[in-house]
C-alpha cells in the first residue's frame, strides 16, 4: 500500500481528519524490527492473513505475512519475545521450506528479507551458487525432456501396418 499512499490517503481523509503516511524512510525489515522493540506489540501484534485465535495466539504462523515477519524477528534475535502471538511450533514446521522459497523469490521485499536473513547467518552465503547449480540442473532436465519429445516418431508411423 505504501506506493499508493500519496494518492489514496488524501482521498480517504475527511473534514477534521487528515491521513498521512509515516515511516517511508524505513525498509520493511527496519519497520518490523522497530515494532519488535515495542513491549505492547509482543502481546498484540497481528500481521496474519488467516488469523486463528487459538490459545490466545492470533497469527497462524504459516501465511506469507506471518512467515516474512517471523524470519525477520528471528534474524533480529526477537522471535522468542513473540511466542504469545505466533505459534513457534508451527513456524518450525514451515521454516526450512520458507527459507528455500525465499532464496528463489525475485520480488524486492523478499530480496530484502533474504539479505537480512543471510547477514544474520540464517541462510548460508553459498545459496546463490547452489541456486545457480539447481537452475542448470532444471534447465538441462528440460532440454533432455524436449529432446525426448521431439524424437517421438511421426504420426504416420504410428498407424498400424496391415498384417500379411
Keywords, separated by commas or semicolons:
0% strand, single chain, globular, mainly alpha, 164 residues
Word description of this protein:
The protein is built from seven helices and no strands. The chain has 164 residues and is an all-alpha fold. It has one domain.
Mean pLDDT over all positions: 81
Low-confidence stretches: none
Helix/strand-derived class? mainly alpha
Radius of gyration: 24 Å
Show the helix and strand layout.
Blueprint (H helix, E strand, L loop, with lengths): L4 H8 L15 H9 L4 H4 L19 H12 L12 H17 L3 H12 L7 H24 L14
Helix pairs in contact: 4-6
Short note summarizing the structure:
It contains 7 helices and no strands. By secondary structure, the protein is mostly helical.
Amino acid at each position: 500500500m505504501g506506493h499508493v499512499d500519496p494518492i489514496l490517503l488524501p482521498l480517504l481523509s475527511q473534514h477534521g481528519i487528515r491521513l498521512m503516511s509515516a515511516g517511508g524512510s524505513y525498509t520493511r525489515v527496519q519497520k518490523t524490527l522497530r515494532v519488535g522493540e515495542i513491549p505492547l506489540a509482543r502481546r498484540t501484534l497481528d500481521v496474519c492473513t488467516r488469523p486463528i485465535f487459538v490459545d490466545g495466539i492470533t497469527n497462524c504462523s504459516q501465511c506469507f505475512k506471518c512467515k516474512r515477519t517471523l524470519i525477520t524477528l528471528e534474524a533480529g534475535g526477537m522471535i522468542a519475545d513473540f511466542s504469545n502471538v505466533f505459534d513457534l511450533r508451527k513456524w518450525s514446521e514451515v521454516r526450512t521450506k520458507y527459507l528455500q522459497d525465499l532464496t528463489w523469490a525475485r520480488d524486492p521485499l523478499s530480496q530484502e528479507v533474504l539479505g537480512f536473513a543471510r547477514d544474520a547467518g540464517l541462510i548460508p552465503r553459498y545459496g546463490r551458487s547452489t541456486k545457480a547449480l539447481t537452475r542448470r540442473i532444471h534447465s538441462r532436465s528440460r532440454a533432455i525432456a524436449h529432446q525426448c519429445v521431439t524424437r517421438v516418431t511421426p504420426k504416420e508411423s504410428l498407424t498400424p501396418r496391415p498384417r500379411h
